[in-house]
Amino acid sequence: MEDLELKKNLLQLKIDKLKKHPLLNSNILKKPNALIILMEHHVFAVWDFMSILKALQNIVCPSGFPWKPNKFTTNGVTRLINEIVLAEESDLIGDDKYLSHFDLYIQAMEEIGANTNYIKILIKTNFNDNLDFRNLNIPNGSADFLTTTFNLLALKKFHITASLFTYGRETTLPTMFLSLMNQIKETTKTEKLQLYLERHIDIDSNRHGPLSIQLLDQAIDNDPQKHMEAVDAAIIAIDSRFMLWSSILNKIKSLKI
User: Fold this and answer.
1) Domains in the chain, please, with CATH?
2) Strand, helix or coil at 168?
3) What is the structure's pLDDT at 209?
4) Residue 208 — pLDDT band, cuts 50, 70, 90?
5) Are 167 and 219 in contact (CB under 8 A)?
6) 2, 132, 199, 230: least CB-packed within 10 angstroms?
7) How many Å is the Cα radius of gyration of the chain?
8) Range list of H helices, 157-208
9) Phi, psi torsion values for 91, nearest 5 degrees
């Protein structure tokens, strides 16, 4: 399908552009106050990541009972999801200490002195199908990012959710996080943030990235229409991430940090 190949090429161009975003490829985040702005915006994307993962888990291996087998329990997809959830929701952090990556990020924010009030209010919110994050008291760029994600999740299509997870998160985050790591490696009070970044760079590059590609292949199941929709969703996700980084950079510049 020529149109599909063109869209796949467009997706790759957008991914390449995203990885070169100036927020992550300059020295601006070496300044602690700029890094705090980043974290206060990005924490919503960390929560968003877990929400996508749990949406996938609900599709593949729902937690209702009595338990019933499905096609995913025989083709290995259930194993893929459960392995990813295990690490993201209860990673081994230090000696005999298990922690979700989201909780580790909150600790990293507290370590550097970032405000965690707004994200803590968000996770206590009663959500519904008509939720518009733009109506909540969170940064506009973060609200737009969340709204885009949840609009895609609301379609409740396995291949779209898997594409959002694979291209929008697992296969693109390691490079971006490595760029961030290079900026903050000598910044004080970032030990927990560096640990968070290290875990994602390691796990996503070596294990979760390849697993997510397998997951997406299973979700598309050689269906050209699903493949096209998956690439379209990936493009939306990459554009959304680019706009999030831009909104953070603009905020930092506006405060003349």
Assistant:
1) 2-254 (1.20.910.10)
2) helix
3) 82
4) confident
5) no
6) 2
7) 18
8) 158-165, 173-184, 191-203
9) -75, 150
